[in-house]
Specification:
The protein is mainly α and 302 residues long. The chain has a domain of 65 residues. It has 4 helices and 9 strands; from the N terminus they run ββαβββββααββα. Strands 5-6-7 form a 3-stranded antiparallel β-sheet, with no helix packed on it. Strands 1-2 form a two-stranded antiparallel sheet. A two-stranded antiparallel ribbon has the order 3-4. The longest helix is centred in the middle third of the chain and has 92 residues. Keywords: Coiled coil.
Length: 302
């Protein structure tokens, strides 16, 4: 007699399993498989390189298809991590495309399995807690391995990018300084011309005022020389052959009375308060601030 079992869908043959339960588990597995595909594609690996199998129990098995290595370009090592092509051009030969790296693929497979297990994990006993702590330690080791592998790719790239940027700073640095100096001299000239204009206008105004006062005292007769001094014309724009320049407003600010500044404009010093919290805990009081402890889990190797 065939053995039967029961589930929310009713009775079923144990040898075959409940068709509806199997279908539900496979549907959940297929959803998980789609998530894996999305995560893999985010690494730059085409989904065609991924082989996925969804089992009846809802678990997902996946592997990466092996690819033939790209044909290497023959270069000549000229030192300092730099190689020259046969034609003489200097290039940096660096690794790219980590999604095709067999080690990275293995790391991805391990990470996905760890993530799947972490989602299912239950911590309800001292042994469960110990097992979880051991796994956290293992995850820390895996993070280090991943970072070391990442540095194999980005380390040389960053080094060469820095070297390139440093070389171009030899061009952009002096140019920026020349631009700054030239702008400063034009601005100083414009400011001086505007000062002279204001001064000449003030002299002419003072002459007219003095003449009016003298005339009021001498029945309309005055001896003050009211010949206006020349007021230099200061154009708003300097029109050169290739460009036009002019002064534009550039409003700034400075604090003259901190106590009078509204509180919404006073920013809390986050770095200083963090330092106090870590150094003095709650022993040092700061008005309006509460220091509190929020423990986090630290896992150390034994």
């Amino acid at each position: 007699m065939e053995q039967k079992g029961k589930c929310p869908h009713g009775e079923f043959l144990l040898a075959e399993g409940c068709p509806q339960c199997i279908a539900e588990r496979k549907a959940a597995g297929e959803e998980k498989a789609r998530t894996i595909v999305e995560l893999v594609e985010e690494t730059g690996v085409p989904a065609d390189n991924l082989k996925i199998e969804v089992q009846d129990d809802g678990s997902v098995d996946f592997t990466m298809k092996e690819e033939a290595p790209d044909t290497a370009v023959e270069t000549v090592d000229i030192g300092y991590g730099i190689r020259a092509l046969p034609g003489g051009d200097v290039v940096a030969v660096v690794k790219v495309g980590p999604g095709k790296d067999a080690v990275v693929v293995k790391l991805l497979e391990e990470v996905m399995r760890i993530k799947e297990y972490a989602d299912k994990r239950v911590v309800q006993s001292p042994q469960d807690s110990k097992d979880a702590v051991n796994d956290i330690k293992g995850m820390g080791d895996l993070k280090k391995a991943i970072e070391e592998k990442r540095q194999e790719y980005v380390g040389p790239l960053n080094a060469h990018v820095k070297a390139v940027n440093d070389d171009f700073k030899l061009l952009t640095g002096p140019l920026a300084e020349a631009d700054k100096v030239t702008r400063g001299k034009v601005t100083a000239y414009n400011n001086e011309m505007q000062r002279r204009q204001r001064e000449a206008e003030e002299i002419n105004r003072a002459k007219d005022e003095l003449a009016r006062k003298e005339a009021a005292l001498n029945q309309g007769v005055f001896t003050v020389d009211t010949t206006p001094v020349n007021v230099p014309h200061v154009p708003k724009l300097t029109r050169a052959e290739t460009a036009t320049a002019g002064m534009v407003d550039n409003w700034k600010w400075e604090v003259v009375d901190f106590d009078a500044v509204p509180k919404e404009y006073k920013v809390v010093d986050d770095a200083m308060l963090n330092s106090i919290a870590k150094t003095h805990h709650d022993r040092k009081q700061v008005p309006g601030v509460r220091f509190y402890n929020e423990p986090t889990l630290r896992v150390s190797s034994r």
